[in-house]
Design brief:
Number of strands: 4
Distance between the termini: 16 Å
Strand order of the largest sheet: 1-2
Shape: globular
Helix content: 55-70%
Structural class: mainly alpha
Largest sheet: 2 strands, antiparallel
Strand content: 5-15%
Number of helices: 8
């Protein structure tokens, strides 16, 4: 079934977001992710750290407003999957897609430590460590995404890979292992 691969990726993404492993995504999980990213770049207290925190806060607010259908201030796997699968079936409005792109551009822009518009392997590895991706898996996904083998990914390439990860049902999509190998 074409949605099986997407369902598997969304389960993995849910697990990444559920930082405390309690079976729900909550505001505190996004606060923990922001802290992990900032710690990974030794950025606690900087303007860049504040930007990471703000983007992840906005991400939580957006997800909760759409997915928390029972208004319990947490998102279950069922709520998460229902929304994500609906979005890939054409349920996501153009404005929502644009907002997701902008938020990702800001977040991936934080990876670009020297401001040159590109992400190198070390920046990629540090960022994905916050999401529980091993260094080896981050290196492998980087190599797959770096189609011209120049050792750099643009912020736009990262945004596209992330969007592809969360929407594609293609079992051969380059981004499928972005958060580590699928089971």
């Amino acid at each position: 079934m074409p949605e099986d691969i997407l369902r598997e990726k969304m389960r993995k993404l849910f697990d990444v977001y559920d930082t405390d492993g309690n079976g729900y995504i909550e505001r505190s999980d996004f606060e923990a992710l922001a802290q992990r990213i900032n710690d990974g770049f030794a950025d606690t207290g900087s303007p860049r750290a504040a930007e990471v925190t703000a983007v992840l806060h906005d991400t939580w607010e957006d997800l909760a407003s759409r997915m928390d259908v029972d208004s319990d201030q947490r998102i279950s796997l069922e709520e998460f999957l229902a929304d994500k699968l609906d979005a890939t079936r054409g349920g996501a409005a153009a404005s929502r897609r644009k907002t997701r792109q902008e938020r990702r551009r800001l977040l991936f822009g934080v990876m670009d430590r020297d401001g040159d518009g590109h992400i190198d392997l070390d920046e990629h590895r540090r960022f994905y460590r916050a999401f529980g991706v091993s260094a080896a898996d981050a290196e492998e996904s980087f190599a797959v995404l770096d189609v011209n083998s120049d050792g750099l990914l643009s912020v736009d390439e990262m945004v596209q890979a992330s969007l592809e990860y969360s929407t594609s049902t293609d079992p051969n999509a380059r981004s499928n292992d972005l958060l580590g190998p699928l089971d």
